[in-house]
Specification:
Blueprint: H1 2-20, H2 27-40, H3 46-54, H4 61-80, H5 83-95, H6 99-116, H7 119-137, H8 142-155, H9 164-173, H10 177-202, H11 204-207, H12 225-243, H13 245-248, H14 252-267, H15 271-276, H16 280-293, H17 295-298, H18 301-310, H19 318-335, H20 337-348, H21 356-369, H22 379-390, H23 397-426
Helix pairs in contact: 1-2, 2-16, 3-16, 4-12, 4-14, 4-16, 5-6, 6-7, 6-8, 7-8, 7-22, 8-10, 9-20, 9-21, 10-23, 12-14, 16-20, 19-20, 19-21, 19-23, 20-21, 21-23
Amino acid sequence: MLEVIIFLFIFVGTYLAIFFRPFKLKESYYVLTGIILMLLWGILQLTDIVNAIVSFDAVEPYAILIFFTAFAVLSAGLDELGFFEYWSIRVVQAAKHDGLKLYKYLFVLSALTSYIAANDIVILTLTPFVLYFAKYTKIKARGYLLTMFIVANTASIGQITSNPTNFIVSMVYKIPFFENLLIMFLPTLLGLIAIYFILKKVFYREFKIKFNEKKVDLNKIIKNKYQCRVFYIMLLLLMLLFAVAPILKLQLWVIAVIGTLLAILISGINPLKLFKHLPWNVILLVTGLFVIVYGFIATGIFSWLGLYVQELVLTGSYFTFVSLSVFVTFFAGIFNNIPVTTILASLSLSITSVRQEIVSYALIIGSNVGANFTILGSLAGIMWFHLIKKKKHHIKLLDFTKFGLLASIPFIIIVTFVLYIEFWLFF
């Protein structure tokens, strides 16, 4: 019992340290500290660290980490070559000094980037641009920053590659890429339309402005057009290959690695220079979190939860679907979406009283939307909060939760309702 208490204390303390960042260290250092403390207390053994990376019950963390890193290489390459900055500036220019048009175009850019690439890419790439733009135009950045963040974490439910948590669920439940793409398109689209009008109404006074933009020569933004073209074509090609992965009998992470290596070789880009721009802090942070979460297995908490879950009797009603989605959203927001999804995805296999589709897609919805519930909900959210704070922009935690829930609750209701109808019609 003492071991369990110590583990939970270290687990909670690690997350608080990641958020408050005492001594201003990188987030991955706090996870490393938590792992060292667990080793010293005997909660984890060195072999547990290997097991945590190789196999967490039904989850294979190594596949997730390799997949995430491969996609990070493609995204870092596009970012370094100026692709995201180029389209961000095009969005501003298209707005023609109109704050409401800027909101509309930023909304679409955030949604498409999150859907095609990943939500973390939107948050970590577009945030500096919004802050830069706000600095030179003197506009209030709060509404634009929250819009970008909320949209990134809702559009990302649309496909498996848009969020590591989606990949976790798809791995556990063996959800085919193309099937997921088809079934999620309409719910995601309708949910985003609702969010568009909600946020426009909420921040209307902040958006209804005229601004002056700084002149930028677009021809100088893309550093190497050939390399940039190779990277975004490979990104699109990978999407097609993911769709036919079952036919090729290849796992998604294998396809992602092959595609990324080909992009580097064909483009001729300097790999060492590229690797310097990888989000190593995020990669190490995610890796460390899998080890931290393995403490649930090492202490026996996971087995106890498994016995409890096996006794759950759920109906296949819409109420069950939306309730599960809200449940996952809440816990993902409190304890971070990656560990919560890792644990719940494995445990949920024991629930045999309800349809597989309802449980798996409730996990996908909640793990994405949970990032809008609290700053702790996602790793990108924590880094986003510290980044805007460093740039002298302040968003109250209560306001973050208030606006996040205001947009996310209708989104959950719409998405679950449309999905439930699709389940009834096609499954």
